[in-house]
Fold these 4 entries.
Entry 1:
Amino acid sequence: MRMLSLFDMDVLLRNAGAERVGEDASRKLGDILEDRAKDVVFRAKIYARHAGRNTVTREDIMLAAQT
């Protein structure tokens, strides 16, 4: 199930300087970002559990995003 819209990906690409954006580029960026986000959340949950918490914190996310 896609969580990030093609419109949002188009806006991201254009804000990053792309003048023209193909739908396939927007779709691929969304796939990559969703995969990366799932990986970050997975790692953040591990860090929270290791700290004895059930709540994922900002710090867990930041640490997970660095790896």
Entry 2:
Amino acid sequence: MRYIVQPWETWESMNTIASRFGVTPEALVAANPILNSVPLGPGIMLTIPGRPEPELPSGTYIEYIVQPGDSIYAIANRFRLNYRDVIAQNAQIANPDVIWPGMVLRLVYR
């Protein structure tokens, strides 16, 4: 399972995030080695150990809220989608190199 760190969450929130998912802070850091080199901050996607990734049926979609530092390419990779498909499915994107936090993207699974 993946979790996106919210704007109000900081390194001090690690215990809260870990307890929310029933894991220890140490297990959370072990599952996310990036935390050894960057501080916990908004928009970072954490892997929650011991929690399976949900599989969405073909043709379904999720709405994703763009976080600071996101790019279409990174979002597509994170959700295992084709970069060009994400652009094609979001007509509101005039320039795929310019997205901003708070923008809502539709991510369609095929």
Entry 3:
Amino acid sequence: MTAEWVKIRFGVSSAREVELEVDPAEDIAAAFDLAMAENAKVLWVADVNGHRHGIVLDKVAFVEVEKARPREIGFGPT
């Protein structure tokens, strides 16, 4: 059984957000907590496409974790 992807959005102090689809959320939340506890400068996150993103931790204003939703196509009722 494969895990579902999740969407994570990091708010940074420049009023911009970085939104990534990652798998699974629990690993990212734990990595974020550990990086903050160790006073790390950057948290490296790999998205579902294998791209790595460096998040500068002293610029993070908030972290939002959202469960995956089915992707809808078209204009019909759901």
Entry 4:
Amino acid sequence: MPSPNASRLPSPEVLRQVKLIELHTRGLVNSLFSGEYRSVFKGQGMEFSEVREYQPGDEVRTIDWNVTARMGHPYVKRYIEERELTVMLAVDLSGSERFGTVSRFKSELATELSAVLAMAAIRNNDRVGALLFTDRVEHVVRPGKGRRHVLRLVRDLLAWQPEDAGTDIGRATEYLLRLLTHRTIVFIISDFIASGLERPLKQLAQRHDVVAVTIEDPRERILPDMGLVRFTDPETGLAVDVNTSHRRVREQYEQRLRAEHDERTHLFRRLAIDEIAVRTDRSYVEPLLRFFRARVERGIGR
């Protein structure tokens, strides 16, 4: 049975939001991110072209020392880009993403971040696609090129109404492993409020360049003193009454959140997965720039 989203035309409001996001993110890409993206991801698919004599300005690391020794003066290797890169955006649309207490929901931040990364990719003539997931794969935009393709991707992110509310990153990674036949840059955009992350992330990172984009809201870290409060899990619907005025309850909550955060950070490090941590109450520009510059310094992607 087809999804109810399949035949739904985008509303004028969705189209207006797409245009606003394009204008905003295109400006950021043109002024900030395009060069940084290029510096990080250029040359992941490089093919040997020829050897020629060294010329002033050539990088020392490109010198072919064997040919140089035979000829008695420096020669360098030249490469050409073998093929365009593929960028895949795996975006979590589960119930916990429809939460925000300051200026926007986590899902809104995920959409704008996706637009920035997609715009940077097409600016460099790369292919970009998207996979939207909850505890199932909700929707897939296969990798493609061009402005029209990216606008369709952003439109789908804005307009898609998830059919489920849970989170299953394992199902998303299984689908990606079947879909992606070549090494791909995979951005997983989620709050990672889920269990059983290690195995699927490890399998995906063994074949692809995986980057975790962790989205948080400041109110998730602290339990406010508000007396007896009923909390409802946005993914399961389970409700529980909590006495938030009890100091020990608030302390245990914060300790558990810190432990989960530390465990997730250590997991990403063990699996050599870079993390970009963003928050709904702050700009994502600086975290993205830090990510790009850190990768340049480590030489990843060259």
